[in-house]
Protein backbone atom coordinates (compact mmCIF):
# COMPACT_ATOMS: atom_id res chain seq x y z
CA UNK A 1 0.00 0.00 0.00
CA UNK A 2 1.22 3.51 -0.80
CA UNK A 3 0.59 6.46 1.50
CA UNK A 4 0.19 9.79 -0.28
CA UNK A 5 1.29 13.08 1.26
CA UNK A 6 0.54 16.41 -0.39
CA UNK A 7 2.60 19.53 0.16
CA UNK A 8 3.81 22.59 -1.74
CA UNK A 9 7.54 21.77 -1.78
CA UNK A 10 9.04 18.29 -1.38
CA UNK A 11 12.65 18.58 -0.20
CA UNK A 12 14.79 15.48 -0.53
CA UNK A 13 17.69 15.61 1.94
CA UNK A 14 17.92 17.01 5.49
CA UNK A 15 21.40 18.45 5.16
CA UNK A 16 22.21 22.14 5.63
CA UNK A 17 20.73 23.06 2.22
CA UNK A 18 17.45 21.17 2.55
CA UNK A 19 16.82 22.29 6.12
CA UNK A 20 17.64 25.94 5.51
CA UNK A 21 15.32 25.95 2.51
CA UNK A 22 12.51 24.52 4.67
CA UNK A 23 13.12 27.29 7.22
CA UNK A 24 13.11 30.06 4.60
CA UNK A 25 9.92 28.71 3.02
CA UNK A 26 8.26 28.53 6.46
CA UNK A 27 9.12 32.17 6.97
CA UNK A 28 7.12 32.96 3.83
CA UNK A 29 4.22 30.73 4.93
CA UNK A 30 5.04 28.06 2.31
CA UNK A 31 4.57 24.50 3.51
CA UNK A 32 7.18 21.85 2.74
CA UNK A 33 8.02 18.27 3.65
CA UNK A 34 11.66 17.22 4.12
CA UNK A 35 12.69 13.57 3.85
CA UNK A 36 16.04 11.88 4.49
CA UNK A 37 17.18 8.27 4.42
CA UNK A 38 19.25 8.78 7.62
CA UNK A 39 18.13 8.92 11.23
CA UNK A 40 18.21 12.21 13.13
CA UNK A 41 21.16 10.90 15.20
CA UNK A 42 23.17 10.07 12.07
CA UNK A 43 22.51 13.48 10.59
CA UNK A 44 23.51 15.29 13.78
CA UNK A 45 26.69 13.32 14.28
CA UNK A 46 28.27 13.01 10.84
CA UNK A 47 31.70 14.62 10.88
CA UNK A 48 32.10 17.11 8.06
CA UNK A 49 34.10 20.24 7.37
CA UNK A 50 33.59 23.32 9.39
CA UNK A 51 34.29 26.69 7.83
CA UNK A 52 31.38 29.13 7.57
CA UNK A 53 31.70 32.35 5.65
CA UNK A 54 30.51 35.42 7.51
CA UNK A 55 27.70 35.69 4.93
CA UNK A 56 26.62 32.13 5.67
CA UNK A 57 26.29 32.83 9.39
CA UNK A 58 24.39 36.00 8.56
CA UNK A 59 22.04 34.07 6.27
CA UNK A 60 21.30 31.54 9.03
CA UNK A 61 20.62 34.30 11.54
CA UNK A 62 18.46 36.29 9.11
CA UNK A 63 16.44 33.14 8.44
CA UNK A 64 15.69 32.89 12.17
CA UNK A 65 17.83 29.80 12.74
CA UNK A 66 18.77 29.53 16.39
CA UNK A 67 22.47 29.14 15.61
CA UNK A 68 25.24 29.23 18.15
CA UNK A 69 27.95 29.87 15.56
CA UNK A 70 28.89 33.21 17.11
CA UNK A 71 28.97 31.79 20.66
CA UNK A 72 30.43 28.32 20.19
CA UNK A 73 32.26 28.80 16.90
CA UNK A 74 35.74 30.25 16.65
CA UNK A 75 36.21 33.35 14.57
CA UNK A 76 39.24 33.20 12.30
CA UNK A 77 40.59 36.41 10.85
CA UNK A 78 43.19 34.74 8.68
CA UNK A 79 44.89 31.54 7.60
CA UNK A 80 48.51 30.60 7.12
CA UNK A 81 50.02 29.24 3.93
CA UNK A 82 53.18 27.29 4.77
CA UNK A 83 55.72 26.41 2.07
CA UNK A 84 59.44 26.25 1.53
CA UNK A 85 60.08 26.25 5.28
CA UNK A 86 58.21 29.46 6.13
CA UNK A 87 54.69 30.55 7.11
CA UNK A 88 52.81 33.36 5.34
CA UNK A 89 49.70 34.78 6.97
CA UNK A 90 46.74 35.82 4.85
CA UNK A 91 45.20 38.50 7.06
CA UNK A 92 41.51 38.44 6.06
CA UNK A 93 40.51 41.20 8.47
CA UNK A 94 43.08 43.60 7.09
CA UNK A 95 42.64 42.62 3.44
CA UNK A 96 38.86 42.41 3.09
CA UNK A 97 37.42 43.32 6.49
CA UNK A 98 35.71 39.95 6.85
CA UNK A 99 36.51 36.68 8.61
CA UNK A 100 35.20 33.13 8.74
CA UNK A 101 33.79 30.99 11.54
CA UNK A 102 35.11 27.57 12.40
CA UNK A 103 31.85 25.84 13.30
CA UNK A 104 31.46 22.23 12.25
CA UNK A 105 28.61 21.22 9.99
CA UNK A 106 26.99 18.83 12.47
CA UNK A 107 26.46 21.79 14.82
CA UNK A 108 24.79 23.72 11.98
CA UNK A 109 22.51 20.72 11.53
CA UNK A 110 21.72 20.59 15.25
CA UNK A 111 20.86 24.31 15.11
CA UNK A 112 18.59 23.84 12.09
CA UNK A 113 16.80 20.80 13.49
CA UNK A 114 16.54 22.49 16.89
CA UNK A 115 14.78 25.42 15.21
CA UNK A 116 12.59 23.52 12.75
CA UNK A 117 11.32 20.53 14.75
CA UNK A 118 9.92 22.48 17.74
CA UNK A 119 8.20 24.78 15.21
CA UNK A 120 6.37 21.77 13.79
CA UNK A 121 8.22 21.38 10.48
CA UNK A 122 7.41 18.06 8.80
CA UNK A 123 10.76 16.23 8.58
CA UNK A 124 10.66 12.49 7.95
CA UNK A 125 13.79 10.59 8.86
CA UNK A 126 14.67 7.12 7.60
CA UNK A 127 12.50 7.65 4.56
CA UNK A 128 14.52 6.88 1.43
CA UNK A 129 13.69 8.52 -1.90
CA UNK A 130 13.58 5.93 -4.66
CA UNK A 131 12.59 7.99 -7.68
CA UNK A 132 10.90 11.18 -8.84
CA UNK A 133 7.91 10.84 -11.13
CA UNK A 134 6.40 13.35 -13.51
CA UNK A 135 9.56 15.47 -13.52
CA UNK A 136 8.25 17.54 -16.43
CA UNK A 137 4.74 17.96 -15.05
CA UNK A 138 2.95 20.48 -12.84
CA UNK A 139 2.92 18.04 -9.92
CA UNK A 140 6.20 16.16 -9.62
CA UNK A 141 6.17 13.34 -7.07
CA UNK A 142 8.84 11.82 -4.88
CA UNK A 143 8.35 8.12 -4.27
CA UNK A 144 10.09 6.96 -1.10
CA UNK A 145 10.18 3.89 1.08
CA UNK A 146 10.34 3.77 4.89
CA UNK A 147 12.15 1.35 7.21
CA UNK A 148 9.14 -0.99 7.24
CA UNK A 149 9.19 -1.16 3.43
CA UNK A 150 6.01 0.93 3.03
CA UNK A 151 5.94 3.24 0.03
CA UNK A 152 5.26 6.93 0.64
CA UNK A 153 4.46 9.22 -2.25
CA UNK A 154 4.97 12.96 -1.80
CA UNK A 155 3.06 15.00 -4.33
CA UNK A 156 4.19 18.62 -4.57
CA UNK A 157 4.25 21.72 -6.72
CA UNK A 158 8.05 21.74 -6.63
CA UNK A 159 10.61 19.03 -5.83
CA UNK A 160 14.05 20.06 -4.56
CA UNK A 161 17.01 17.70 -4.60
CA UNK A 162 19.19 18.51 -1.61
CA UNK A 163 20.22 14.89 -1.43
CA UNK A 164 23.96 15.04 -1.78
CA UNK A 165 26.45 13.90 -4.37
CA UNK A 166 24.65 10.61 -5.12
CA UNK A 167 21.39 12.50 -5.67
CA UNK A 168 18.35 10.48 -6.70
CA UNK A 169 16.65 13.69 -7.81
CA UNK A 170 19.52 14.54 -10.15
CA UNK A 171 19.32 11.07 -11.66
CA UNK A 172 15.58 11.48 -12.23
CA UNK A 173 16.16 14.84 -13.92
CA UNK A 174 19.12 14.15 -16.11
CA UNK A 175 19.72 10.38 -16.20
CA UNK A 176 23.28 9.60 -17.16
CA UNK A 177 23.87 13.11 -18.56
CA UNK A 178 25.26 13.75 -15.11
CA UNK A 179 27.55 16.73 -15.55
CA UNK A 180 31.04 18.11 -15.86
CA UNK A 181 33.70 16.80 -13.55
CA UNK A 182 37.34 16.52 -12.75
CA UNK A 183 39.11 13.87 -10.72
CA UNK A 184 42.29 14.34 -8.66
CA UNK A 185 45.05 11.77 -8.10
CA UNK A 186 44.93 12.20 -4.30
CA UNK A 187 42.54 12.31 -1.34
CA UNK A 188 42.66 13.63 2.24
CA UNK A 189 43.27 11.46 5.26
CA UNK A 190 41.40 13.17 8.12
CA UNK A 191 41.87 12.61 11.83
CA UNK A 192 40.24 13.84 15.01
CA UNK A 193 42.46 13.74 18.06
CA UNK A 194 42.35 14.67 21.73
CA UNK A 195 45.02 17.32 22.10
CA UNK A 196 45.37 21.05 22.63
CA UNK A 197 45.52 23.21 19.47
CA UNK A 198 48.84 23.17 17.62
CA UNK A 199 48.13 26.58 16.05
CA UNK A 200 45.71 29.47 16.58
CA UNK A 201 44.65 29.51 12.94
CA UNK A 202 44.42 27.02 10.09
CA UNK A 203 47.71 26.08 8.48
CA UNK A 204 47.58 24.98 4.83
CA UNK A 205 50.98 23.43 4.26
CA UNK A 206 52.63 22.55 0.96
CA UNK A 207 55.61 20.38 1.87
CA UNK A 208 57.87 18.21 -0.29
CA UNK A 209 56.15 15.20 1.32
CA UNK A 210 52.70 16.43 0.32
CA UNK A 211 49.95 18.66 1.67
CA UNK A 212 48.68 18.88 5.25
CA UNK A 213 46.00 21.01 6.90
CA UNK A 214 46.06 21.77 10.60
CA UNK A 215 42.57 22.72 11.75
CA UNK A 216 40.89 22.92 15.13
CA UNK A 217 37.66 21.91 16.79
CA UNK A 218 37.97 23.04 20.43
CA UNK A 219 40.53 23.49 23.21
CA UNK A 220 40.73 19.72 23.58
CA UNK A 221 39.86 18.29 20.13
CA UNK A 222 41.75 18.95 16.89
CA UNK A 223 41.10 18.13 13.24
CA UNK A 224 43.99 17.51 10.85
CA UNK A 225 44.32 16.19 7.32
CA UNK A 226 47.10 15.03 5.06
CA UNK A 227 47.21 14.29 1.35
CA UNK A 228 47.06 10.55 0.70
CA UNK A 229 46.51 8.01 -2.02
CA UNK A 230 42.76 7.78 -2.86
CA UNK A 231 42.82 4.01 -2.33
CA UNK A 232 44.41 4.10 1.12
CA UNK A 233 42.88 1.92 3.84
CA UNK A 234 42.16 4.22 6.83
CA UNK A 235 43.27 1.45 9.21
CA UNK A 236 46.57 0.86 7.42
CA UNK A 237 48.49 3.21 9.74
CA UNK A 238 49.29 3.06 13.45
CA UNK A 239 48.78 6.24 15.49
CA UNK A 240 52.58 6.69 15.62
CA UNK A 241 52.76 6.49 11.83
CA UNK A 242 49.97 9.04 11.44
CA UNK A 243 51.76 11.50 13.71
CA UNK A 244 55.02 10.92 11.88
CA UNK A 245 53.37 11.69 8.53
CA UNK A 246 51.62 14.78 9.87
CA UNK A 247 54.77 16.10 11.59
CA UNK A 248 56.80 15.65 8.41
CA UNK A 249 54.32 17.75 6.44
CA UNK A 250 54.34 20.83 8.67
CA UNK A 251 58.02 21.66 8.98
CA UNK A 252 58.58 24.46 11.50
CA UNK A 253 55.73 23.46 13.85
CA UNK A 254 55.85 20.74 16.48
CA UNK A 255 52.35 19.32 16.51
CA UNK A 256 50.79 18.61 19.89
CA UNK A 257 49.99 14.92 19.75
CA UNK A 258 47.22 13.00 21.47
CA UNK A 259 45.00 9.96 21.00
CA UNK A 260 43.47 9.76 17.51
CA UNK A 261 39.84 8.71 17.95
CA UNK A 262 38.52 9.02 14.45
CA UNK A 263 39.96 8.65 10.96
CA UNK A 264 38.40 8.97 7.52
CA UNK A 265 39.38 9.41 3.88
CA UNK A 266 37.81 12.26 1.88
CA UNK A 267 37.72 11.71 -1.86
CA UNK A 268 38.41 14.68 -4.11
CA UNK A 269 36.14 15.54 -6.99
CA UNK A 270 35.05 18.69 -8.74
CA UNK A 271 31.60 18.31 -10.26
CA UNK A 272 28.83 20.50 -11.68
CA UNK A 273 25.53 18.96 -12.80
CA UNK A 274 24.44 19.55 -16.42
CA UNK A 275 21.02 20.72 -15.30
CA UNK A 276 20.24 22.49 -12.05
CA UNK A 277 16.57 22.74 -12.86
CA UNK A 278 14.08 21.06 -15.09
CA UNK A 279 10.42 22.07 -14.96
CA UNK A 280 9.53 22.30 -11.29
CA UNK A 281 12.43 20.20 -10.06
CA UNK A 282 15.66 21.87 -8.87
CA UNK A 283 18.97 20.88 -7.29
CA UNK A 284 20.93 22.56 -4.49
CA UNK A 285 24.20 21.84 -2.66
CA UNK A 286 26.18 18.67 -3.30
CA UNK A 287 23.40 17.29 -5.51
CA UNK A 288 24.20 20.15 -7.90
CA UNK A 289 27.98 20.35 -7.45
CA UNK A 290 30.86 19.11 -5.37
CA UNK A 291 34.12 20.91 -4.68
CA UNK A 292 37.35 19.57 -3.17
CA UNK A 293 37.56 20.61 0.50
CA UNK A 294 40.69 22.76 0.11
CA UNK A 295 38.75 25.99 -0.44
CA UNK A 296 36.28 25.25 2.41
CA UNK A 297 33.42 26.14 0.07
CA UNK A 298 31.11 23.09 0.21
CA UNK A 299 28.53 24.11 2.79
CA UNK A 300 28.79 27.80 1.93
CA UNK A 301 28.00 27.16 -1.71
CA UNK A 302 25.04 25.00 -0.71
CA UNK A 303 23.64 27.86 1.37
CA UNK A 304 24.18 30.30 -1.50
CA UNK A 305 22.16 28.05 -3.83
CA UNK A 306 19.35 27.93 -1.29
CA UNK A 307 19.15 31.71 -0.96
CA UNK A 308 18.70 32.01 -4.72
CA UNK A 309 16.23 29.14 -5.00
CA UNK A 310 14.18 30.46 -2.09
CA UNK A 311 13.73 33.80 -3.86
CA UNK A 312 12.60 32.01 -7.02
CA UNK A 313 10.20 29.70 -5.16
CA UNK A 314 8.57 32.55 -3.31
CA UNK A 315 7.75 34.27 -6.59
CA UNK A 316 6.49 31.00 -8.10
CA UNK A 317 4.41 29.86 -5.14
CA UNK A 318 3.11 33.22 -3.91
CA UNK A 319 2.75 35.08 -7.22
CA UNK A 320 2.40 32.20 -9.67
CA UNK A 321 5.30 33.46 -11.78
CA UNK A 322 7.78 30.80 -12.88
CA UNK A 323 10.29 33.11 -14.55
CA UNK A 324 12.69 33.50 -11.59
CA UNK A 325 12.79 29.69 -11.23
CA UNK A 326 13.67 29.50 -14.91
CA UNK A 327 16.59 31.83 -14.19
CA UNK A 328 17.78 29.87 -11.12
CA UNK A 329 20.34 27.75 -12.94
CA UNK A 330 22.08 30.69 -14.55
CA UNK A 331 22.09 32.71 -11.35
CA UNK A 332 23.49 29.83 -9.26
CA UNK A 333 26.13 28.83 -11.81
CA UNK A 334 27.68 32.27 -11.59
CA UNK A 335 28.89 31.64 -8.05
CA UNK A 336 29.33 27.88 -8.48
CA UNK A 337 31.97 28.27 -11.20
CA UNK A 338 33.80 30.92 -9.21
CA UNK A 339 33.89 28.54 -6.27
CA UNK A 340 34.93 25.66 -8.53
CA UNK A 341 37.81 27.71 -9.80
CA UNK A 342 38.88 28.80 -6.32
CA UNK A 343 38.69 25.27 -4.92
CA UNK A 344 40.64 23.84 -7.86
CA UNK A 345 43.22 26.64 -7.59
CA UNK A 346 43.83 26.18 -3.86
CA UNK A 347 44.06 22.43 -4.43
CA UNK A 348 46.48 22.63 -7.34
CA UNK A 349 48.67 25.20 -5.60
CA UNK A 350 49.03 23.21 -2.37
CA UNK A 351 49.17 19.50 -3.28
CA UNK A 352 51.95 17.40 -4.74
CA UNK A 353 50.79 15.57 -7.84
CA UNK A 354 52.38 12.11 -7.75
CA UNK A 355 55.10 11.87 -10.40
CA UNK A 356 55.14 15.61 -11.07
CA UNK A 357 58.19 17.11 -12.78
CA UNK A 358 60.73 19.23 -10.92
CA UNK A 359 59.68 22.08 -13.20
CA UNK A 360 56.10 21.90 -11.97
CA UNK A 361 57.17 21.62 -8.32
CA UNK A 362 59.32 24.77 -8.66
CA UNK A 363 56.58 26.58 -10.60
CA UNK A 364 54.17 25.81 -7.75
CA UNK A 365 56.51 27.55 -5.28
CA UNK A 366 56.68 30.47 -7.71
CA UNK A 367 52.89 30.65 -7.65
CA UNK A 368 52.74 30.57 -3.85
CA UNK A 369 55.32 33.36 -3.68
CA UNK A 370 53.38 35.41 -6.24
CA UNK A 371 50.27 35.15 -4.07
CA UNK A 372 51.80 35.71 -0.66
CA UNK A 373 54.23 38.49 -1.60
CA UNK A 374 51.58 40.64 -3.28
CA UNK A 375 48.75 42.43 -1.50
CA UNK A 376 46.64 41.93 -4.62
CA UNK A 377 47.39 38.19 -4.55
CA UNK A 378 46.55 37.87 -0.86
CA UNK A 379 43.41 39.94 -1.36
CA UNK A 380 42.21 37.65 -4.15
CA UNK A 381 42.59 34.65 -1.86
CA UNK A 382 40.98 36.43 1.09
CA UNK A 383 37.98 37.61 -0.96
CA UNK A 384 37.26 34.13 -2.24
CA UNK A 385 37.93 32.30 1.03
CA UNK A 386 35.74 34.57 3.14
CA UNK A 387 33.03 34.50 0.46
CA UNK A 388 31.71 36.81 -2.19
CA UNK A 389 28.74 38.93 -1.09
CA UNK A 390 25.26 37.48 -1.61
CA UNK A 391 22.71 39.33 -3.72
CA UNK A 392 20.17 41.12 -1.49
CA UNK A 393 17.34 38.90 -0.23
CA UNK A 394 13.87 39.34 -1.67
C1 LIG B 1 37.96 21.47 8.75
O1 LIG B 1 38.23 22.04 9.81
O2 LIG B 1 37.39 20.36 8.74
C2 LIG B 1 38.35 22.07 7.44
C3 LIG B 1 38.84 23.37 7.42
C4 LIG B 1 39.23 23.95 6.22
C5 LIG B 1 39.11 23.23 5.05
C6 LIG B 1 38.62 21.94 5.06
C7 LIG B 1 38.24 21.36 6.26
O3 LIG B 1 39.54 23.79 3.87
Shape verdict: globular
Bound molecules: P-hydroxybenzoic acid
Q: Architecture of the largest domain, according to CATH? A: 3-Layer(bba) Sandwich
Question: Between the first and last Cα atoms, what is the distance in angstroms?
Answer: 42 Å
Return the CATH topology of the largest domain: FAD/NAD(P)-binding domain
Assess the beta-strand content as a share of residues: 25-35%
CATH class of the largest domain: Alpha Beta
Secondary structure layout:
Elements: E1 2-6, E2 9-12, H1 16-27, E3 32-35, H2 40-45, E4 51-53, H3 54-62, H4 69-72, E5 74-76, E6 78-83, E7 86-91, H5 92-96, E8 100-102, H6 105-116, E9 122-124, E10 127-133, E11 141-146, E12 151-155, E13 158-161, H7 168-174, E14 179-183, E15 187-194, E16 203-207, E17 210-216, E18 221-228, H8 239-249, E19 260-266, E20 269-273, E21 277-278, E22 281-283, E23 289-290, H9 298-319, H10 323-326, H11 328-350, H12 358-372, H13 375-386
Parallel strand pairs: 1-12, 2-3, 2-13, 3-9, 6-16, 13-22
Antiparallel strand pairs: 4-8, 5-8, 6-7, 10-11, 11-12, 14-20, 15-18, 15-19, 16-17, 17-18, 20-23, 21-22
Bound molecules: P-hydroxybenzoic acid.
P-hydroxybenzoic acid is lined by residues 49-51, 202, 213, 215, 223, 293-294, 296.
Amino acid sequence: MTTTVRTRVAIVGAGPAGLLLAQLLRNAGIESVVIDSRSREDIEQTIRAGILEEGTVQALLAAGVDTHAHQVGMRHDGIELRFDGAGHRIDFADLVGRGVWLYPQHLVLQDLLGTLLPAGQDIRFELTAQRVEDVDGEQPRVVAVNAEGTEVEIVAEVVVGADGSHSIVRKAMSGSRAGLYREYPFAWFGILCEAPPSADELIYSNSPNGFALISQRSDTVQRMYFQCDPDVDPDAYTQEQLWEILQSRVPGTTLKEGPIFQRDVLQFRSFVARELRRGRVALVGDAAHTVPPTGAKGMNLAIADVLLLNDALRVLLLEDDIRPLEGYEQAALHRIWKAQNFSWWMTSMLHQVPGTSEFDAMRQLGELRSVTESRAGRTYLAEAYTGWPHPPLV
